[in-house]
Design goal:
This protein has 190 residues and is α/β, with parallel strands linked by helices. The protein is 22% helix and 25% strand. It contains six helices and eight strands, in the order E-H-H-E-H-H-E-E-H-E-H-E-E-E. An eight-stranded mixed beta sheet has the order 4-3-2-5-1-6-8-7. A hairpin with a 5-residue loop joins strand 7 (169-176) and strand 8. The two termini are 14 Å apart. This is Dihydrofolate reductase family protein. InterPro entries: DHFR-like_dom_sf, RibDG_C, Riboflavin_Biosynth_HTPR. Residues 2-182 form the Bacterial bifunctional deaminase-reductase C-terminal domain.
Length: 190
Amino acid sequence: MRTLISTAFISLDGVVEAPGGEPGYRNSGWTFKDVAFLPEAFELKGREQSEATAMLLGRTSYESFSQVWPDMADFADYKAMPKYVVSTTLAEGDLVTNWGETTILRSLDEVAALKETEGGPIIVHGSAALNRSLSDAGLIDRYHLLVFPLLLGAGKRLFSATDKDTQKLKLVEHEAYANGLQKNVFDVVR
């Protein structure tokens, strides 16, 4: 079975919305406006590209990333990687042609089936609503979280507010950095 990894820039109060400056959010760009940049704190992001073998996105994140990432040297490894977009509304004609093979999945059952295929880890970037659904369905195996020392208040959150049984996580890697960022890698305990 393939490992499904959720990776996120997250505020201390759980917000993941608009970390890179996406329009429409009051605190947009919080990852670079409010915290000093330390390259070593982002080592995990480079490692993700080299270790992942596929990318899974929700429709909104796909539409945002596909306009920028295909031509960015920082994300070159993702260009050739197979991509899967979970959406009930996206059409084949909506897919970009310069970002490699992309498959539309219409349900979480199709995500579960993808996890059963041969291959390495599948990485989920952005996609707050998809992350909440994947977590509630028990499909996420690991979390890569870069926690920023900020309280953002309102905004899209990584974790759902669904009333459910406790889900235990095992901390497998962590580090704190001089700028206040914390790297936390958790495996989901089954």
